[in-house]
Design goal:
The chain is α/β, with parallel strands linked by helices. The protein has helices spanning 17-30, 45-55, 74-87, 101-107, 115-130, 165-174, 185-202, 222-233, 240-249, 263-275, 289-305, and strands at residues 2-6, 34-37, 61-64, 67-68, 92-97, 135-138, 143-146, 158-161, 177-181, 209-218, 259-261, 280-285.
Length: 320
């Protein structure tokens, strides 16, 4: 399982673009596999990736987690993503998703109409556009006619933010996999991996990527780390898609799925995610800055060695 991290979250105060470049450069120096950006109302993730990727050339993956689809016409997003892909030399992974009704309707004033249907129609245009093919999609919710030629840009992998059964099926059928959040090995093993894998197999597609985003804290006080997450991310508990996955996990809130504890506990948790079928962990290091730095250093060590818990060599045979 690959180990990456989020950047540009501004959890400890405002960050300039130069600050984010330094953050990505540090992740690369630690040996992490990738840097991922969220897309809310601050940084434009794809623009930040284009700038940062030109400055930091030795990080294999630069990803979005995730770009909301409703505010962006599919032709516009395809052109922007391919431009970013050309700028960073083919390292972009494009995570997309419909976001949530309170964001799309409340903040943006758009109709959050039939998100699964919208997503299926959107991907049916986005994937061929990224591959350089013209489209003529005349769906119930998405209409797109045209092409987005960007010479020198290879099609980036597309991951769909998917938590429910219908969205996981769409991810397997039309995308290169899924990116999930607030999900532990329990839901991965019993829900996410079997559904998205079965859908990909039925569609004749390669085995899908399963990227997991979770808060991580190397700490001797796991309760403090959970309280930190509850304070800053607790609003996620009330979003219907997140509430459904938390109920499936059997927990009260997002603080209960945090990977937190001393080194051995964090390493074992990483192993459990890998064993449950995650192909990449996008860690969100949480807590005070010194704790974040220790957490990143541990994650870098795990990334370089390939597994959380080192495999012990077999004991030597006694001499005959």
């Amino acid at each position: 399982m690959r180990i990456s991290t989020t950047v540009g979250l501004q959890l400890h105060g405002p960050q300039t673009l130069d600050d984010v470049v330094d953050e990505v450069r540090h992740a690369a120096a630690l040996g992490l596999h990738g840097a991922w950006w969220s897309q809310t109302f601050g940084w434009d993730a794809l623009t930040a990736i284009a700038v940062t990727g030109r400055a930091v050339g030795d990080l294999p993956v630069l990803g979005t987690a995730v770009v909301p689809t409703y505010p962006r016409h599919v032709l516009a997003l395809a052109g922007q993503a391919l431009t970013t892909q050309a700028a960073v030399g083919g390292r972009l992974v494009l995570g997309v998703g419909p976001s949530h009704a309170p964001v799309v309707e409340g903040a943006l004033g758009l109709a959050y109409d039939r998100p699964a249907r919208h997503t299926r129609e959107y991907l049916s245009a986005l994937v061929p556009l990224l591959a350089g093919s013209p489209v003529d999609v005349r769906g119930e919710l998405v209409r797109a006619t045209g092409a987005t030629p960007v010479p020198g840009a290879a099609p980036p992998p597309v991951l769909l933010a998917a938590l429910g059964p219908v969205m996981l099926r769409i991810a397997g059928e039309l995308a290169d996999g899924t990116i999930v959040t607030w999900v532990t090995e329990r839901s991965l093993d019993a829900h996410v991996v079997p559904r998205v894998t079965a859908a990909a197999e039925a569609a004749g597609r390669p085995r899908p990527q399963v990227v997991v985003s979770l808060p991580v804290a190397l700490t001797d006080d796991p309760d403090a780390a959970r309280a930190w997450v509850a304070d800053r991310f607790g609003a996620a508990n009330d979003l219907p898609s997140y509430r459904a996955v938390l109920d499936r996990e059997g927990v009260a809130g997002v603080e209960d799925v945090v990977v937190a504890g001393p080194e051995g506990a964090v390493r074992r948790a990483v192993d459990r995610l890998a064993d449950a079928g995650a192909t990449e962990l996008v860690a969100v290091p949480v807590g005070p800055p010194d704790q974040v730095e220790r957490t990143l250093a541990l994650l870098g060590d795990i990334a370089r060695t390939g597994r959380g818990t080192p495999v012990r060599p077999a004991p030597a045979r006694p001499p005959a």
